[in-house]
Design a protein that fits this description.
Layout lengths: L1 H22 L13 E3 L6 H10 L3 E9 L2 E8 L2 E7 L5 E8 L6 H8 L8 E10 L2 E9 L3 E8 L2 E9 L3
Antiparallel strand pairs: 1-2, 2-3, 3-4, 4-5, 5-6, 6-7, 7-8, 8-9
C-alpha cells in the first residue's frame, strides 16, 4: 500500500510541476530539438569531473549519461539517491536528492514540526532541489487521514497539495 501511495504522490507532484510550467507558457507551439541520450561509460570531460567532485564527496554507484552535449549523473551520497545535470563546461545546472526526515537541515525540520498545521504529521519523504541560487525542499507529510505536500524555499513554507487517504 505504501509503495503505491508514494508512487502516486510522486506522479502527482511531477504532474503539478509540469502543469504549472505549462500554464505559465504562452499558447504557442514550439518544436524543440530532439534530445539524444547515450547510456554507457561515456567519456566525461575533465571540467565536468572536476566540478562533480568539487560539489560531491564520498559518492558511490556513479552512473553517467550523455544528453546531447551535457552530462547527467546519478549517484548515492550519504544514503540518498541523487542526480545532477552538468553542462559540458562543468557548470552544474541542478542537483536533486531524495531522502527522509533525518536528511532535513535541523532548522527546516523544526520549522515543519512546530508549524501549527503540521506538528502532528510524520515526515515520510523529502526532496532537495538545488538549481543555480535556489535551494528548495519538498516534504511529504502524513497522518492517519491526510498526505500533505509542502515546499520550503527562502524561509517560506507553502502547502502545495493535500490528499485525503481513502479507506
Amino acid at each position: 500500500m505504501k509503495p503505491k501511495l508514494f508512487l502516486f504522490l510522486k506522479t502527482i507532484f511531477i504532474s503539478l510541476v509540469f502543469s504549472g510550467l505549462c500554464l505559465a507558457q504562452e499558447n504557442q507551439m514550439v518544436k524543440l530539438p530532439d534530445v539524444v541520450a547515450t547510456t554507457n561509460h561515456a567519456k566525461v570531460s575533465p571540467k565536468v569531473l572536476d566540478a562533480f567532485y568539487h560539489y560531491f564527496q564520498d559518492v558511490k554507484d556513479i552512473n553517467w549519461t550523455k544528453l546531447d552535449e551535457n552530462f547527467f549523473v546519478s549517484f548515492m551520497m550519504k544514503d540518498q539517491q541523487s542526480n545532477a545535470l552538468f553542462y559540458k563546461n562543468g557548470y552544474m545546472l541542478y542537483h536533486v536528492s531524495h531522502g527522509y526526515e533525518r536528511h532535513l537541515p535541523a532548522q527546516i525540520r523544526k520549522r515543519i514540526k512546530t508549524h501549527p498545521d503540521y506538528f502532528d504529521y510524520n515526515i515520510t519523504h523529502v526532496i532537495y532541489i538545488n538549481q543555480e541560487d535556489r535551494n528548495v525542499w519538498v516534504a511529504y507529510l502524513e497522518d492517519n487521514k491526510n498526505v500533505i505536500l509542502i515546499r520550503i524555499e527562502d524561509d517560506m513554507l507553502e502547502e502545495v497539495e493535500r490528499f485525503n487517504k481513502s479507506l
